[in-house]
Specification:
Length: 179
């Protein structure tokens, strides 16, 4: 029998859901949502079409003991909702900074979930960062509103490669200084 090491990661509560570490039971919904072209094309790292085993690999990567990225599932089961409505992550950077990334399942778009998740993660500041950064594709103004609602300040334009689009995509970059 193989014993797994469980890495401690903060659980962050919001009024409508909790942000909790990914677990093996998330694979099915993760595969369903991440395979949606609309979700994949708004991220830098999710390929489209989603290859077999990609969702399992995402969960395994998020559970590794040695990692620079911490990933949370948006889970509303305690409130009678879905076990996975989206994901949010913090990628550790140098100088006590992190980059925030997030996506929400299309059925839950325009419900404020992303805003609530970002605000909760910033307030909890589980990695004790001094600064958080984020960037969004310029053709996704809804994600830009999520960041401005969470008091991120616009820094400037850049570009990032999207695996699903197989292209560089113009981005807006944001910054949030933390107390």
């Amino acid at each position: 029998m193989k014993q797994e090491t469980i890495v401690r990661q903060a659980v962050v509560e919001t009024p409508r859901f909790v942000l909790r570490p990914l677990r093996a039971s998330d694979v099915g919904l993760l595969e369903l949502y991440a395979s949606d072209k609309r979700v994949a094309e708004m991220t830098t790292s999710i390929p489209h079409p989603l290859p077999p085993g990609a969702a399992e690999a995402m969960v395994a990567k998020a559970q590794r003991g040695e990692r620079k990225e911490f990933v949370w599932a948006m889970d509303a089961t305690e409130q009678g909702g879905s076990e996975l409505m989206g994901m949010i992550s913090l990628q550790q950077m140098d100088r006590n900074q992190s980059e925030v990334s997030y996506w929400v399942a299309p059925a839950m778009w325009n419900t404020g979930l992303a805003s609530e998740a970002v605000k909760a993660l910033v307030a909890a500041n589980p990695l004790n960062n001094d600064t958080m950064f984020a960037s969004v594709f310029q053709d996704n103004p809804g994600s830009a509103r999520v960041l401005t609602n969470a008091k991120f300040a616009y820094l400037g334009d850049a570009e990032a490669f999207s695996v699903a689009r197989n292209a560089k995509v113009p981005t807006w970059t944001y910054l949030r200084k933390l107390d």
